Amino acid sequence: MLYYRELSDFLSFNTITSASKVSKGLGGSATSLIQAHDILYGLDFIIIAILLFTHFIKIDPRPMKKLTAVATTMLGIFLFSFNLTVAESNRPQLLGRTFDRSYIVKYLGLNTFLAYDSIKTVQNNQVRSEAVGTDMDDVLADVQKNYAKPNKTYFGKAKGKNIIIIHLESFQQFLINDKVNGQEVTPFLNSLYDDKNTMSFDNFYHEVGQGRTSDAENMLETGLFGLPEGSLFTKLGSDNTFQAAPAILGQKEGYTSAVFHGNVGSFWNRNSVYKNMGYNYFFDSSYFNKSDDSMLGFGMKDKLMLSESVKYLEQLQQPFYAKFITVTNHYPFQLTDEDKDDFTPPDTDNSTVNGYFETAHYLDNALKEFFNYLKSSGIYDNSMIVLYGDHYGLSDSQNTDLAPVLGIDSKDWTDFNDSQMQKVPFMIHMKGLKGGINHTYGGEIDVLPTLLHLAGINTKQYVQLGTDLLSKQHNPIVIFRNKNFVTPHYTVLKGNSDQPEVYRNKTGELVDLSQNPILKQKVKKWQEYVNVKLKLSDTINNKNLLRFYTPSGFTPVNPKNYDYQNEIQKLVQTRNDLGLKSTSVYSQNNNKSTTSLYTTDAPELNGDRTYIDSWSSILKEDSENKSNNSTSNK
Prior knowledge:
With 634 residues, this protein is an alpha/beta fold. The chain has a domain at 136-396 and 414-548: Alkaline Phosphatase, subunit A. Helix 16 (302-313) runs parallel beside helix 17 (351-377). InterPro entries: Alkaline_phosphatase_core_sf, LtaS-like, OpgB/LTA_synthase_biosynth, Sulfatase_N.
């Protein structure tokens, strides 16, 4: 209870067994967390002890009948199985995906969670205990063989620039430049997509598995795939060694890194994984003003999260690597009436499809407000802004209802059309960047090497399974987690089966491989490549092989050096310690906040900027303290 009160997470098996390593000096901290009403949680023990001591109740020394024991045990098994069945019906793949420990505790209880976590820990430890350093040999050989040299034209183009990642929740490519009832669904993103300073990729795919959003983040940050089942973040993220973007950028180019997300830190186990990746700061929902009307199912509404986050963003030392995770465009795609404007969604028989266009439109407005602030504050001029869709929003089962909106007859919808729905936006926007629509085929696994090369960091020594999208040596085979794949000319479904479905990308027609032996042989060769890549990734992740390999000049991340408590105080302390050397936007603005430049029409605020500008009172108090100290020193 005390652990959750402080860290918003549950005690895991690893935490308990490692308690001796971190327990020194924590007694006082734990005591300070105790509240008066906590005695109620242990009141039953006190009452039972008193009743036993006074002999009001007595222990029955007689042995229990075997039939009663068996019946009681069977009843317990039945009740647990029934509970698990109900939980699975309400939250499918509860134990398979485990995207948040809170859900397991909520549905099955603390005891079940601890038992489950203990079993998974033992299984993981067994696999890892069998790993040896030589297991990296095949990995390194493959990485070096498939390394793609950076494009000289773009290498270092963003060197020293801030890197801002905008994670577009459930956002699919077909929304770009799409119109409904004569209205653009995402007018701002459309303008950005076609901007001369934006390099937009129209053949970019998500490659997530069951980990969905966390898989997308994992590929973005580490250049490795997610797991075939469940989420790497929740299964292995707390213990794995990573060569992730925050650590690489921080060590090579002095970047400060931060994540902004309007959900609880434990969701997808982010509060643990980000430490292993080397993120300096993590601003979760505890750093934002939460109210009943500001939250949706998966966190704070985008307009509110983005507008309130800038008071922290302006305090980060530059250059910074900052990731913003949006949530409003998440299933079930519902907005309150107050959040809707004059946009008219499609009128299909599927309310989920209709709502998807509304929430996408809302996200578009939120991004427009954010970009306006970036430009007004001057951050825009010194930043490379990357936007990407993490995964599909509408599932295959809803695509036939979507088809008429896209001008396609539902009867003509095929598996190939489903595969085309896996395209998501990928845009790199920077003032002075030579933009345009890039038709290169690629996926989320290719993002990290692309960004690092733009930042002037050669990726040859790092273990990354994707290749730079801008490199002439880029491999354009897009790998899906289920072993399907896409090439520039063909889409291959039912991957790894004896009779895969092969479609021509240009026409969508199904190819008869029996009539085309040359193509059949190519498909087999491509499939082998796909299988090898996925197997390598799984081996690296499951055996935690990166602990055996440290690139030259790279220091493995020690998660104990990171703590996401008291982030505000850390920002102020860093700025004060640096003094005139501080590079934060706030410092460069003559120690004045830029939050007043942020304009939003979020109805929840109703003109009240208290929480957007709330940093100002903290800074004022800090300034007064420094002034008083200076006077006292004189």
